[in-house]
Amino acid sequence: MATTGPIPLGLSTFVLASPFSDADLGLFGKVKNFGYEQVEVCIEDPSRLTAPAVAKAAAEEGLSVLVCGAFGPNRDVSNEDEERRRRGIGYLRRCVEFAAAVGSPLVSGPMYAPTGQARLLDPPARAAQWGRAAESLAQVAEDARAENVRLAIEPLNRFETDLVNTVEQGVRFCADVGADNVGLLLDTFHMNIEEKSLPAAITAAGPRVFHFQASENDRGTPGSGHLAWEQVISALREIDYLGSIVVESFLPTVKEIARAVSLWRPVAESMDALAGDSVRFLRPLLRGRPASGGQS
Amino acid sequence: MATEGKFRYSYNSLVYAGEDTAASVDRVARFGYDAIEIVGEPEQIDAKRIAKLTRDAGIGVSSICSIYTPERDLIHPDPDARKAAIQYVKDLVDFAATMDCPTVVVHPTANMKIKALADPGQEWQWAVESIRTAGEYAARRGVSFSLECWNRFESYFLNRLEQARRLWGETGLTNGGVQGDAFHMNIEETSIADAYRESAGVLQHVHFADSDRTAPGGAHIDFVPIVDALVEIGYDKYISFELLPALADPFSGGRHEEFFDRYTERAIRVIRAVEDLVRTRRALGGKG
């Protein structure tokens, strides 16, 4: 049975300030006023964010919090060097603790390798990297389970990673991690480049879709480009998706993953316009509808 | 063979890397293409031999797929480096002329370069000057330029056709225009069809690939409205298929079997069918 309830809408802090810190928590009021129920806090620099302050600021605005990570070269759970893997795992554990402390049900992001790493490895080298990443994430998943937190792994397009590009690869990677609290974060921007069909990819991932990010084909405001949004949302309903949709784009100041993001021109009139217009476009598509059919 | 007012079809031999050109020319001719696109490496590729091979096979050379490396950067801050890049493009013009090829693809900076080395206004000015200098040389040899946009991950400089039209306009050149590649456009343009439509009169060359850079028909780009836009603006030059494997740097070799016979056949069959549909529908007076 397809889900009929409303799908909650969130905004990524990448749209507000980068790197996001405690000093930016006053911006949660804007998030609320734009019309979002959730804010997705991206932990670019963990030393500049404290969980109690984030939780308090969000509670004051009636927002729930989601946590995502940013994975630069020093947060590499797939590295050949054990010490470097350990550092990557350490960062992820910190994200999991943070999520538990702010009440986020998940930690999301392309946590398997450094974002922007896109090399030409031969198949054995790639398989080895894949194996190391899966093994590291299995460790993190165990800690996360104890905290009742899930991990949502994000496939990225070919220019941003060489490890997990498609939903099909993502499903296979989750299986290799082998923990039921590990699933996928799907992002329409990447899917537009890599998937044969966005709705078919969502359907294929089914219950593994833990989280979802909305971005137009050029990283601009959903509804301003050529993505087939109604089909995408319908596919999410068909798989009984119970998560939320977070609007994501990037400020030119983004540092941790600047190379990967590669934004050279403004994709909206302003980030505020993008945040507000996204709600106006997506909200009607995300409302609940009667369970007794009526959909085409 | 091409008929008046119709598209002409070409296949970019870039993805045939490592194969003898005779086999490439034979394949493209066998699947009904009008021409082949040749990689812009004049020192590695014998233009006279290709001229003969294509003539014998009854096809042409549609275009030169130029390879812009850091050593071939038309907007490099070092004037000697710019001069070397301009010389590369001039060499391509000679290379093209030897094969009766009408078009050389131009992008102002190196592929995969995503950081400016100088002030943006200054770089823009260098782009105008370098392209103009090489373009005036090309005009004397009867060769045109197509100024191509690449997606944000492959270049910071020209991502949207609107930017390329502005740059082309500033060069004052009349031998050529802009070029849109559907793979890049799927990432960068609000509407692929509209971007082509707005380039009416200055569209010199077209690259097609599906959203994942495989042959059209395999992924999610709807080519019907796109072809309709090209027909509407009276585009009658080449549609060349630039299909490449799913790698951040697809120009780094390795044989990918499906891009040879399978995609070469599929690309032209699918887009020819779309062209027939669009032209038939228009001839019968409407879309309904």
**Secondary-structure element string of chain A:** EHEHEHEHEHEHHEHEHH
Task: Count every helix of chain B, treating DSSP H or I runs of 4 or more residues as helices.
Answer: 9
Task: State the secondary-structure class of chain B.
Answer: alpha/beta
Give the strand order of the largest sheet of chain B, numbering strands 1, 2, ... along the chain.
Answer: 1-2-3-4-5-6-7-8
CATH architecture of chain B: Alpha-Beta Barrel
The N- and C-terminal alpha carbons of chain B lie at a distance of 30 Å
Query: What is the third-level CATH name, the topology of chain B?
Result: TIM Barrel
CATH class of chain B: Alpha Beta
- How much of the sequence lies in strands of chain B comes to 5-15%
CATH superfamily of chain A: Divalent-metal-dependent TIM barrel enzymes
The level 1 CATH classification of chain A is: Alpha Beta
What is the helical fraction of chain B, as a range of percent?
40-55%
Largest beta sheet: strand ordering of chain A? 1-2-3-4-5-6-7-8
- What profile does the largest beta sheet of chain A have? 8 strands, parallel, barrel
Number of strands of chain A: 8
How is this structure best described in words?
- The complex is a heterodimer of chains A (296) and B (288).
- Chain A has a single domain, classed as Alpha-Beta Barrel (TIM Barrel).
- Chain A is 40% helix and 13% strand.
- Chain A contains ten helices and eight strands.
- Chain A has an eight-stranded parallel barrel with strand order 1-2-3-4-5-6-7-8, surrounded by seven helices.
- In chain A, helix 3 runs parallel beside helix 4, helix 4 (123-146) packs across helix 5 and helix 7 packs parallel to helix 8 (229-238).
- The longest helix of chain A is centred in the middle third of the chain and has 24 residues, at 123-146.
- The mean pLDDT of chain A is 94.
- Chain B has helices at residues 21-30, 47-57, 79-98, 120-140, 161-171, 182-188, 192-197, 223-232, 261-283; strands at 8-12, 35-40, 60-66, 103-106, 144-148, 176-181, 203-208, 238-241.
- Chain B starts with 7 loop residues before the first strand and ends in a 5-residue tail after the last helix.
- Chain B has nine helices and eight strands.
- In chain B, 41% of the residues lie in helices and 15% in strands.
- Chain B has one domain (8-283): Alpha-Beta Barrel (TIM Barrel).
- The A-B interface holds A 118-120, 157-160, 162, 165, 192-198, 217-218, 220, 224-226, 259, 262-265 and B 114, 151-154, 156-157, 159-160, 186-192, 211-212, 218-220, 246-249, 252, 254.
